[in-house]
Amino acid sequence: MKSASYPVLVFLIPLILGLSGCATRYQVRVDALSTLPARPSVQQSYVLVNNTPGDEADSLFFKEVGRHLAPALRKAGMGPAVDGSGDLQIAVKAYLSEPLIETRTTYNPVYMDYPGRAVMVRVPIVNADGKVVRYAYTHYYTHPRRDLAGYVDRDLQVTVYDKTLELNARRVREDGSVGEEVWSIKISLRNESTDYRAALPAMIVAAEPYFGRQTAGEERIVIRADDEALSAFRQALANGR
Questions:
Q1: 172 - beta bridge partners?
Q2: How much is the pTM?
Q3: Beta bridge partners of 100
Q4: Cα dist. 81→55, 84, 117, 184 in Å?
Q5: Pairing verdict, β 219-224 and 44-50
């Protein structure tokens, strides 16, 4: 058990635990590759194709993912093709992992209970000259109290799921055939929920700056549930934008 004789540690641990509970945080992992210029001079059109194993080509789930992707792709200089044949073909793979076991360490407070007790106090009595002439004795009682004694570490086994979204964009040749890959991105979010659709806005908002761009390896981005960008994204979807 960690002793409470370290006042700074005793102060910081509950502070950290308290702050972490203020709002849900999503940690999103983003890994992107690209051969496109940093700032495309013209908007490119795209067609989405479903690359999720076991999912139908035009499933409602695929269409829902595409609806969420549209605003982020538009910010990256890409818009949906109007005639069905775009500059890019973007393969979409969206899936939930099998259950995973994750070990998490928690810090649980340990308290000591102290019973109340009676205490005798001697009080001097003085005369008009300020001399002690005798003593009076009185009793008072202390109240029971509970004090923090320290913290104990506990390892918890938690079942979590990876929500993953992979996009692979390939250039479409003039004859309609699909050519080389020009950019790709992999977005993952791990938590205890199996609700993929609930995680999708946080995943896309975190990854928005990297659509059609390149990361220097895997980036880890933290998005709060009350983040203004996330709220604006959800509101835009609700308004059909």
A1: 178
A2: 0.72
A3: 160
A4: 23, 6, 81, 19
A5: unpaired
Cβ-proximal residues to 183 (8 Å cutoff; 6+ apart), any chain: 32, 33, 34, 35, 36, 169, 211, 212, 213, 214
Q: Locate tokens 């993912």: which residue?
A: 65
Compute the C-alpha angle 41/45/50, nearest 5°.
140
Which of helix, strand or coil describes residue 74? helix
- Say if residues 199 and 163 touch (Cβ distance below 8 Å): yes
pLDDT in tens, 106-158: 888 888 888 888 888 888 888 888 888 888 888 778 888 888 888 888 888 99
Q: Residue 111: exposed, middle, or buried by beta-carbon count in 10 A (0-12, 13-18, 19+)? A: exposed
**Spatial CA neighbour of 87 closest among 178, 212, 166:** 178
Q: Is 22 left (phi over 0), alpha (psi -120 to 50) or beta?
A: alpha
Question: Rounded to whole angstroms, how far apart are CA atoms 69 and 73?
Answer: 6
- Whether residue 218 contacts residue 30, with contact meaning beta carbons closer than 8 Å, is answered with yes
The closest of 163, 114, 152, 122 to 139, measured between CA atoms, is 122
State pLDDT tens for residues 171-181.
Answer: 999 888 999 99
Q: What gap in Å lies between CA 189 and CA 173, rounded to an integer?
A: 34
pLDDT at residue number 14: 46
Cα first-last separation, the chain: 54
Q: What is the pLDDT of residues 212-238, one digit of tens each?
A: 999 999 999 999 999 999 999 998 888
